[in-house]
Amino acid sequence: MKDKINALDLFYKICEIPHPSSNTEKLKDFIISFALRQKCEVKSDSFGNIHLLKGKPKICLQAHYDMVLIGEKVEPIIKGDFITSKDSSLGADNGAALSAILYFSQLLDNFEAIITNDEEIGMIGANNLALKIQSKQILNLDSEDINQIVVGCAGGFDADIKLKPKFKKCKMKYFYELRCHNFSGGHSGIDINKNIPNAIVELVWAIYNIPCEIVSISGGEKRNSIPANARAIIATKKPLKYANDNSIKPTIKITKINKNYKKSFNKKVLKAIYSIHSGVYEMCDNSVISSLNISLINNKNIKMMIRANRKNLLFRQMESLKMRFKNIKISGLYDAWEREDSILLKNIEQVYRNQKIDYEIVEIHAGLECGILRAKCDEIVSIGPTISNPHSKAESMDLKSFNQFLEILEILISS
Ligand SMILES: [Zn+2]
Fold it and tell me: CA-based angle 278:284:287, to the nearest 5?
């Protein structure tokens, strides 16, 4: 054991090597040379995925080695029970798992790992994986709560509705800006059950209540986030008595614009939105299993993202949207990883019980690599150390959970 590097020191080494998504070459070289020194058979594919193999393992560990780098460079510091980075994201997502993989590659004679690339920019590695996995069981290490054993993730698709506004000469005299500004926003899957107001929905319903025409409308930030901002310019025949009076709708600011616009369109084009519920559709055991989020709008399009943890619910959402909207365009479909019982899950539960670590079995209402990798094995489950605020400068990892994570892995893969 003396000449082995411990997992935390390996994590520090990983932090020293820049590895933001699509710029991971240096870390790839480090992983490969490290694994070769441990006498692993090493293979990689053209998408930068890496496969490590020794002997005849039963479980293949899986992590991704790219990170979302917010800030300039990672400088890990320990603050009490946590590790964080001075002025950047930490990359414990998924560097902590990678350090565990490298650590165990030193210790075991029977060992397998698949380390995928560029997962944070659309699961590119998993989607294009061209390496053969020998074990029948895969243990994904990209979860972010030590007390959760993840057994399912959502599938999803994007839907686009064309608005086709007919701009006409504007005969209205008064113009106002309606603005939903700096709502809290959030992830369109994981945060969808938190009753976070959707800026586009609030804006559109405000417009519904005002006799007006629309000059322009825009809102939303990303395809997969709950909109935090939305804005419209409307035209009215009469002055709005509640302009600048925010007591009516505190979340929407109405400001008079002292300017004339020549063209506007009928607000009826927004009617598609009134019939769409943006939020949770179905729950199962406290987990969201079906949802829709209206995410982006402009004068021409409404974009939304639909997620479901059941293949049939995803299919139904798609069919019902197609029936309601003739001009809908569906894209980016990927399947759900449905919850299932497995020997691997039973074994993991046993280890948690033996180690006296609390756990719950959960399904994540977002995409995970497991959704794609499920097709490459008989059983797959996901765990990971507790990481708060990944993909931000506030990212931190709970060190106690990291040690528990190592203990769990050691028992699982050495047996
Ligand atoms: Zn990750």
Answer: 65
140 CA distance to ligand 1 middle (Å): 10
Structural domain total, the chain:
2
> Quick one: average pLDDT of 56-77?
96
User: Does residue 133 sit within a domain?
Assistant: yes
pLDDT at residue 33 is higher than 60: yes
CA of 136 to the centre of ligand 1 (A): 23
Q: How far apart are CA 240 and CA 238, in angstroms?
A: 6
CATH code at 371?
A: 3.40.630.10
Q: Domain span at residue 191? A: 159-334
Encode pLDDT of 270-289 as tens digits.
988 888 999 999 998 888 99
- Ligand 1 centroid – CA 138 distance (Å): 16
Structure confidence by residue, pLDDT tens digits, 300-345: 999 999 999 999 999 999 999 999 998 999 998 888 999 999 999 9
Cα 252 to averaged position of ligand 1 atoms, centre (Å): 35
Distance in Å, CA 142 to ligand 1 centroid: 5
User: Span 112-118, mean pLDDT?
Assistant: 97
* Ligand 1 midpoint to CA 56 (Å): 27
